[in-house]
Amino acid sequence: MKVRASIANSLNQPAHRVPVLLHTPVYSALAHALTYLSDQPLCPGTLVRVPLGQRELLGVVWDAAPAGTEVALDPARLRPITAALLSLPPLSANWRALISFAAAYYQRSPGEVALAALPPQLRDLNSLQLARRLNRPAVGRAREKLLGTDAPASVQADPASIPETIDLVALTAEQTRAIAQFHANPGPFLLFGATGSGKTEVFMRCTADLLAASDLGQALVMVPEINLTPQLEDRFKARFGPLYGQHAVVSLHSGMTPAQRLKSWLAAHSGSARIVLGTRMAVFASMPQLKLIIVDEEHDPSYKSHEGARYSARDLAIYRGRLEGAKVMLGSATPSLESWHHSRPSAEGGRYLRLEMPSRVGANALLPLVRRVDMNHQPKACVIAPPLLAAISQRIAKGEQSMVFLNRRGYAPVLQCRDCDWKSSCPHCSAYRVFHKIDRSLRCHHCGFAEPVPRACPDCGNVDIAPVGRGTERLEEHLALLLAGIARPDGTPVRIVRIDADTTRLKGTLQAQLAQVHSGEVDVLVGTQMIAKGHDFRRITLVAAINPDGALFSSDFRAPERLFGLLMQAAGRAGRDAGNSSRSEMWVQTCYPTHPLFAALKEHDYPAFAQSQLTERLQAGMPPFCFQALVRAEAGTQQVAQAFLNAASQASTDLTSVAHLLPYITRYPAVPMSIQRIANIERAQLLIESPSRTALQRFLSAWQAVLHSTRKQPECKGLLRWAIDVDPLLI
Ligand code: ADP
Ligand code: ZN
Ligand code: ZN
Fold it and tell me: What fold, for 369-409+472-618?
């Protein structure tokens, strides 16, 4: 199969012109497909290697430009491709359409999006090496099957290893109903199910049904952070491995080695992988027989990319499903307000079908009782309110686990001089450096700058410098002190474990720590939001949020949504095992116990919370009732960053092609970003809003050229970079 394109441009051989996409950033002049010569016709989607300047790059043969838009080229300057990777089946028209859409929507070049969506190792392999990898047993057989050259059963596991039946749990009435609705409707679906309502079981049944109905069908299952949800991977492997073979379930995420990623990608592309489990990057996996896309915990911010093309994998999943005729199911106990709004009744304009599973599985598995502790009435400066401490102590004495979380790692967020008011600010950022007691360092969580704690105040020499506020490290220390006298049922002392980004830096430590929690070796688990998500901790009966108030009054309009989701998720960690004797509890320490957010939390009433938030957003004209884009600029000085943004904004009024849209576009003045300086780089942003998604899209596409030319203005000298973020999550 391997064919190397020979030098195509030899005199007597007619050469074919092929458009090729390369990884060129949007702001280079080479934003679109380049034309190369080939001595044979190459169909779109074929991978090729081509020369560019002195380099040789991987490229994708692209679709020809629409008639009439071709650029005149000087034939003498066209160069031949170096090689075509013909051992690999071409990327499908659907895949190319997905890339083109994502590039246009997120205002990047198609080449950048396409090449970033391919496994990096593809760049290093030639056609022969690729052919070898493709012909490895699992991948090769399915590929032959896909191409119709092999006996039908070859992709199945060895029949002898297939168990007669797989033991399946009896579905609950709510699960049965959700699955029936899934089969009876085209979707997209929003599976709105309480934590512990058995959403994963629904995902697996729907996957099983669609795969069984189609000989070659494939399913894409997306999760926010694969490292935090190894349980899901295990569950899918256990369920589908016996049916389709262990190689039929593959993972795709950034924690894998390049070789592993390539292997999974090839398995998906060749069709041998029937199920791909992955993080946001998996939304671009080439899956020629895609029948189903599941987006678990669809509200999770990690579905939004924050570099390169700032795409939302959840939103692209919806688009891709429509494109490929695959069903799409989003799932969450606390959906994003966007998805919630889209799943309103269709009579009110809703486009998704909402499937509801309000109850937890198991007759006794009640949702935890939510208790609000009014911190205004607790001893001054207390960190853990006495009634909460008493409740934790009781759980320990009974041999049950508690989980305490605080959204700040390190020992204390700032160190301060009691005399002159010196604070441990970072010299390179507009932020404080965090005090880490374990190695007595001051570390900036933004630029990484770290120094030993000074022995005295650098400004006045006073030795009395003290931590202010509290992070998980200090909380752990404090709890150890408070709980020192409490014994477990067998008389041994209490065991506390902390899990956050600091304790899990080494590979494998997170898994080891989680295993300790699961096996019951831990009585109190302290951590950041990392522990609040996804894990199925069966022995935890008490969850406490130590200081969640900050998000209530944040300038970020999405902060309450995130807080509510986090608290509901955290509450969902408690009481998952009906066998535990006591009713599980979620404690919230707050100075605003009557805040509507906590009132809705107490009732586990996400719909009420969502309704109140959506009413506020409607009144304020915020998403999902308007569409936003943010342009961010970085420069040596704040003045230059802002000058660039304001000049480009001003110049957009001269754009005749979109003049009729300007009444629907609101351009705000440039402002410093909330963390204005990181690593000595000044950052500014400019917000653009429109009630119409299409108007915003057209405006942004036309405005790109203005941004490029503004950059060349003298007052923008010193501008380092800029980027557009469409549908930004953080404003
Ligand atoms: P969710 O994803 O909605 O939080 P899970 O799918 O993790 O919930 O289910 C919670 C627990 O209930 C899991 O341990 C799962 O194995 C179990 N479970 C799910 N469905 C059923 C069922 N129909 N009968 C018994 N147990 C079930
Ligand atoms: Zn001082
Ligand atoms: Zn810094």
Answer: Rossmann fold (3.40.50)
